[in-house]
Write a structure and sequence with these properties.
This protein is an alpha+beta fold. It contains two helices and eight strands; from the N terminus they run H-E-E-H-E-E-E-E-E-E. The longest helix has 23 residues.
Length: 159
């Protein structure tokens, strides 16, 4: 019985999280997109408070090592082939999130593969508060040796 409930929750909750992040977060914080080198990249964020209450056995409660206690946001990245519109899977992505005014060196984190309603996305947690950020991505597609870089100017709105 519990296994069946956990399987159902494993599908419903991540989809609900993504839906709520798109509906509840003000427009400037929802998503930004760019296209280069045959890849269209969309990024978005949502506060970790939205998933903090999930049980440890639930995928949302354990992804990326578990939900951080301190205020953080979850960065989500989706990749699409520019020509076909198909999702790109099997990529490796590193991301750096810094305040737009910051002069400190950039530390990259690996984004982990996530399955949300059967679709591959990539994500991880980052310490963010409302304000302007520079989000840098290094993307390496499967079987392609070249790393493609993207940089986004991102405004995280007050929620």
């Amino acid at each position: 019985m519990y296994r069946k409930i956990n399987k159902i929750l494993a599908v419903i909750v991540p989809g609900t999280i993504l839906f709520l992040s798109l509906v509840l977060i003000p427009m400037p914080a929802i998503a930004s997109g760019k296209t280069a080198n045959g890849i269209t990249v969309y990024i978005g964020t949502f506060p970790t408070a939205m998933i903090r209450g999930h049980p440890k056995l639930h995928p949302a409660g354990t992804m990326h090592g578990g939900v951080p206690v301190q205020p953080r946001y979850h960065l989500v990245v989706a990749l699409f082939d520019k020509e076909t519109g198909e999702r790109i899977t099997g990529a490796r992505i590193k991301a750096a999130v810094t305040r737009a005014s910051s002069k400190t060196s950039v530390a990259y984190k690996d984004l982990q593969v996530m399955l949300i309603q059967g679709k591959i996305t990539y994500g991880n947690y980052f310490g963010m508060i409302p304000g302007s950020y520079t989000i840098r991505l290094k993307i390496q597609r499967a079987n392609v040796p070249r790393i493609i870089k993207f940089e986004f100017n991102y405004q995280l709105a007050q929620t």
